[in-house]
Amino acid sequence: MRKKLIAIIFLLPIIIIGLLYSVSYVLIGNVVDEPDSISFAESTAFLLVGGGMDLKVTSSPNNEKFASNITYVSDREDILTVKDNKAYGLKSGSSQVTARYKETNITDTLNVFVYTPQSKELYIIDPNTSYTGITSQKAYGEYDLGEGFIKESGKVSLKAFDFGASLTIDGQLTPRGKAERANIIKGEGKLSYDEKKETYNIEILGGDDITVRFVSQVGESLDYTIKVIPEGFNVYTYAQLLYCTNHSLNGEKVVLRSNLESYSNSYLGEETKTAKKNTNPLLLTQQEKDSLKNLGQEEYHYLKRTYDEKDYYVEYLTRESTYDTRYLTRLNKSTKINIGLSLKKDLYANGFTINFHALTYPTGDPTLVKGVYLPSLSENDIFRGPLDYCGVLADENNQAAASVGGEDNCALEVEGDNLILSGLIVKNCNTITALAQLDYVGTVIGIKHQSNVKIEDSIIMNGRNLVRAFSNDGVTVSHCLLEYAKDFLLRLGADEFIQLTKDEFLSGGDYNYPDGERIGNTLEVDNTYFYDSGFFSIGLESHFNGRYLYDKDEIFSYTLPLGGISKGTDLTIKGDTRFYDWKDVDSISTDTMLQVKADLGDLSQYLSNFDIVPIIKRELAKEENKKFALNVEGKTYLNSAIADYGGGINNSVINSNTDLTALGLAKLGPVVFDPVEDKFLANCAGTAPFNFYLYPSDSKITYKDTPKTGDLAD
């Protein structure tokens, strides 16, 4: 957390000691002999410098045998260290301790405030605060939305306590009392005090920051600055979020002031359905749906979901895909994708969560495969995997037996220039136990054909792809954590491509864009961590451009030609960017390249070696590449950081301002397809090489390391 606000948020037991932490809830079924979830008893703990406390979580279902497989990690080792399941305070500050079951993402987080006793101190807190995320920076909208979405002055409630010398050994504080007085010393606002709730209430009367000075009973003063977002709207519910996004022609700035979670993550217990503090479901009641329907500028669609015998709705929009849709068009198939939110202005999320589980996650009966429950699609699900870029052997119903994926559905699409997405925790579904459970959930954040978009201080997780950025002029991903993607954590490319005829391709001409026109997408990554992808952390995509896409009618039927040469991405990587993406080579998922949907029978010869894993293994066996292979207990691990791929000419570049050596990366490749061993891959995807950028096996980031969000804070 950023240092400038730590002094006013640690030592906060009176208000938040009783809050329960939101425990991830898995809807897909139990993993055999593994817990659904783990949780600390409380969300917050307090510790004296030099003191220690035991760390313990409970599991659901409750079973003591799981305890030996729990590890605890502090995100700020300079403030708090963990040894033998016990936390020790080193200096004043705050740290997040993450409990993790084995090497899964079954986790829970405990916020620990470490402090040194003081003779007199003031502490000011905002009770409506999220303690998760990368930064503690809080923003407030200039406006609230009243009943009927009427614009009102924004409101802030603060508690101010005068903590004196009363400290107990277990870390509890006894306040001397509330602050003696407060007044606004900067900015426009109206201040009042609520005796019953013991809160100072500030009404925001302008777009400038407001500074409130609090004075203790012994005359000590402390200033608290309310960062005001001009023209921003404080958003507490899904309906308010839709009002500021999908239902606004030009968009409104969103200042998120509540978690918008899944139904299961919004309540404390199944029996009582008691709402969690600062959490509302990302669902609409019938009444909320009716209140929104006449506000929009386009056609809205609603997906009905039933929980506890009550109907709810989640809204989605449709957009025309901007990727190559020639194959679908020739088969008279839909070229539209579904999106959840159309973001046209800035989003300041304050560490609160948006969880699109109800929109994206399949609702069919799960299937147990190798100890993991995999979801299945039901008739009403609208996120069903990506559109087909090209397909093999379409049947009489134009269904491909195997296909290469194009653009996927998207939960949050950026549809405006010069936008900031700050302090966001966004995910497409609840906790998962295997990346295969993300097959259908789509892209989390999509950005295409926009300029100057910045994602900062955000955690993006649980999607087939996490951020998909195509054909943009200037996207920045800064101080973010991207974790858990079936395909890519960051997928980059361009929609523009050169379409060749069969004769042009077979003539062997040198087709490409002129030198100065080969880049169609620019993106910068700064001080960002990547963790756990199915294929690679960053993918630099190009079109397939192999011979079969031009002259193999028995495979691709009348949809030919389908090849092309696309513009590339100019990628810059800077700062302390890290790739926590070691994986067993055999677990690398190639179904992002090809989805086999039916039994191919005698035609399986064409697809039997459409698999990149043997090719990677072949490269790792070469003497010059053995430095990339990490051999542990009979398994070969590879750090899959960056791949430029496609098989056709890839015009992407890693910018010269990127110091690969400083990042710890080295190049494996170019990997050229063997015309005999890789026949189908070479003739379908193309013969241009793949390039991989990896950590060597002696990297300072090992296959056991996991990212700590505290290291990302300024």
Question: What does this protein structure show overall?
Answer:
The chain is mainly beta. 9% of the residues lie in helices and 41% in strands. The protein has a 15-stranded mixed sheet that branches. Strands 12-11-20-21-27-34-37-39-42-46-53 form an 11-stranded mixed sheet. Strands 10, 13, 14, 16 and 17 form a 5-stranded antiparallel sheet that branches. 49% of the residues are buried. The model is unreliable at 1-32 and 165-174 (pLDDT under 50).
Features:
714 residues; mainly beta; 11-stranded mixed β-sheet; 9% helix; 41% strand; globular; disordered N terminus
Summarize the SSE layout with pairings.
Layout: H1 3-6, H2 13-16, E1 37-39, E2 44-48, E3 52-54, E4 58-60, E5 70-74, E6 80-83, E7 86-89, E8 93-101, E9 107-115, E10 121-125, E11 140-145, E12 151-153, E13 155-167, E14 173-178, E15 181-186, E16 189-194, E17 199-204, E18 210-215, E19 221-226, E20 228-235, H3 238-244, E21 253-256, E22 259-261, E23 279-281, H4 286-292, E24 301-307, E25 310-320, H5 326-330, E26 336-343, E27 347-348, E28 353-355, H6 357-360, E29 364-369, E30 372-376, E31 388-392, E32 402-405, E33 410-414, E34 420-422, E35 425-427, E36 443-448, E37 451-456, E38 459-470, E39 473-478, E40 481-493, E41 497-498, H7 502-506, E42 519-526, E43 529-533, E44 536-541, H8 548-551, H9 553-556, E45 565-566, E46 568-574, E47 578-580, E48 582-584, E49 595-596, H10 613-620, E50 630-632, E51 635-639, E52 642-645, E53 653-654, H11 660-663, E54 666-671, H12 679-684, E55 690-694
Parallel strand pairs: 2-9, 11-20, 20-21, 21-27, 22-23, 26-33, 27-34, 28-35, 33-36, 34-37, 35-38, 36-38, 37-39, 38-40, 39-42, 40-43, 40-44, 42-46, 43-47, 44-52, 46-53
Antiparallel strand pairs: 1-4, 3-7, 5-8, 6-7, 8-9, 10-13, 11-12, 13-14, 13-17, 15-18, 16-17, 18-19, 24-25, 25-26, 29-30, 31-32, 32-49, 41-45, 48-51, 50-51, 52-55, 54-55
